Amino acid sequence: MTDSASNAADVDPDLVTMIDAVFANYRESHPPTGSIARDAELWLSLDQLGLLRLSGSERSGGSGADWYESAALITAAVRHGVRIPLAEHDMLACWLLEAVGAPIDQAARTVCVLDTAGNATAVPWASTAERIVVVWPDGQRYLMTDADCTDLRIVPGTNLIGEPRDSVSADIGSLTGTAVSAELVEQLRLKSALVRSIQVCAALDSILELTVDYASSRVQFGRPLSKFQAIQHLISDIATEAALARAATEAALAAAVESDWSAAKLGFFVAVARSCAGHAASVAVRNGHQALGAIGTTIEHRLHEYTRAALAWRSEFGSVRHWDEEVTRAALGAGSAGLWGLIAD
């Protein structure tokens, strides 16, 4: 874990500073209210800065960064309340195209996996994309195509914070696709899940920061709220759960990066990360709003931006129950003799 922690800490501070400057300036003039669409102007700015394809290889037109730097990018977007499909475009859709050697142009993309009837629900940012990387089962294999959105049926929807989460359907019998392995589709599943865990952890950190700031500055009965033991307990529980979720997520990320997404226990590590992040969100949301009271739900205060985001993201690419069950199955499969070997790094 020491090496992985240092790798995460080695993200170029100048990159982080630049990202923070871009997102901070944007957030000041674009408060996230109501339904959210992909901002074409911001998209172009990020493209010009080399941030849209941050993790893509240089030979495919990307910036050649790794997942630690991409995680820093999407974390900064969460921290500043900027809603934009960076992960879906770069870390998922374009990665999949690059993995099969398909050409990648400048179109904004997302990705979805259709069922055998050709349907997918809660597809992120589909209604605002220009192309969708579509994967579907074909007997014992999978097929994939980089589809123009006009060739698909898209019914708009949103999640709890107004981000597009749309229904996508296609006549898979008329689609022509490239064969992709089940292993690659499983990688897509784990990458998608880990992206959401990173985002939830970023939201938890912001919830903690806002709660601490409020409790330190708000005076009640002649002293700051932070001096009351009950408030201290609420905040310490948020901090504990956020730290646990972050540690589990960083462990999964390190295992993924160091093994090029091939670690034998990677599925278990991702499941633990998602389980921890999901349960941490319950504690952070409850305690944060309890500490702030009604002000935390108002438009003027930013707490609800992060609490609603944490609740929305923890249920995407697999519910909390789903990931709990994956952890349970792995533990039962290992048995008492193999349990320590399963959890030890």
Written description of the protein model:
Its cofactor is FAD. Keywords: FAD, Flavoprotein, Oxidoreductase. It comes from [Mycobacterium] holstebronense. Belongs to the acyl-CoA dehydrogenase family. This is Acyl-CoA dehydrogenase family protein. The protein is of the alpha+beta class and 345 residues long. 55% of the residues lie in helices and 12% in strands. The chain contains ten helices and nine strands. The strands form three sheets. A four-stranded mixed β-sheet has the order 1-3-4-7. A three-stranded antiparallel β-sheet has the order 2-6-5, with no helix packed on it. Strands 8-9 form a two-stranded antiparallel ribbon. It is globular and about 70 Å long. The N and C termini lie close together (8 Å).
Number of strands: 9
Average pLDDT for all residues: 92
Determine the strand fraction and express it as a percent band. Answer: 5-15%
| Rg calc | 21 Å
Task: Draw up the topology in text.
Elements: H1 2-9, H2 13-29, H3 40-48, H4 67-79, H5 86-99, E1 109-113, E2 119-124, E3 131-138, E4 141-148, E5 153-155, E6 165-169, E7 178-180, H6 182-217, E8 219-220, E9 223-224, H7 229-258, H8 266-292, H9 303-313, H10 320-343
Parallel strand pairs: 1-3
Antiparallel strand pairs: 2-6, 3-4, 4-7, 5-6, 8-9
